[in-house]
Amino acid sequence: MSNTTQHSTAQHSHICLFSFSLLSLPDKHSLAFVVHIERINGMSSLVQRTIARFCLSKIFGDVFMKVTPPTIKTLCIVEPYVTWGFPNLKSVQELILKRGQAKVKNKVETIPLTDNTVIEKHLGKFHVICLEDLIHEIAFPGKNFQVIAGFLHPFQLSIADHTTKNRVGFIKEVGSPGY
Questions:
Q1: For residue 93, how many C-alpha atoms fall within 13 Å in the half-sphere facing its CB?
Q2: If DSSP codes are grouped into helix, strand and coil, which group holds residue 179?
Q3: Large ribosomal subunit protein uL30-like ferredoxin-like fold domain: from which residue to which, for each copy (predicted)?
Q4: The domain made up of 1-86 is a member of CATH 3.40.630.30
Q5: 63 neighbors 70 (Cβ within 8 angstroms)
Q6: In the β-sheet with 31-36, what is the strand arrangement from edge to edge?
Q7: CA nearest 176: which of 63, 38, 47?
Q8: How far apart are CA 44 and CA 37, in angstroms?
Q9: Whole-angstrom Cα distance, residue 134 to residue 118?
């Protein structure tokens, strides 16, 4: 990595940490919705590993995350490649009901979340027995949030074809990267 690249990366990290220190979180049990919006080809291995750890391998792949100070620092690393925000209960409910899929059989196979027996079988020990319980546990993160969120396969949002052809219009419609 060249000296100029290291300087700009360090400067970006300082600005990012400063802006996040000014950000006030809604409460200690905040939920973030993270969307992968930029390609990471040719980026540092730290960025690539972080995106992989978030399970955001595809463009417009999305996950729910519990917001903590370490999570914010990690999001700062990948800020140019993701956008994120705080969803409300209605958004969480609609997303899980319309696009929710579960990872089963050693996380290789995915199935749509249409049957409560699958949810009860895999998450019953955490007192999550139906789709409404799953939505509640995601919308209001508790102590078992990581396991329950890990049960969900990353969401894959679609994007209109015309927005990807014109990059300027694309950024206007999707929003700028970062928070």
A1: 7
A2: coil
A3: 32-82
A4: no
A5: no
A6: 82-85, 31-36, 61-66, 155-156
A7: 38
A8: 17
A9: 12
The structure's pTM equals 0.72
Residues 6+ apart with CB under 8 A from 35: 60, 61, 62, 82, 83, 84, 157
Query: Mind listing the pLDDT tens digit for each residue in 86-132?
Result: 888 999 999 999 989 988 876 668 888 888 998 999 899 999 999 99
The predicted-structure confidence for 5-64, as pLDDT tens digits, reads as follows 444 444 444 445 445 554 555 555 589 999 888 888 888 889 889 888 888 888 888 999
Shortest CA distance to 66 belongs to which of 47, 92, 44, 46? 92
Instruction: State the maximum Cα–Cα separation within the chain, in Å, rounded to a whole number.
Output: 56
Could you state, in order of their start, the residue ranges of all structural domains in the chain?
1-86, 89-171
d(C-alpha 125, C-alpha 174), whole Å: 39
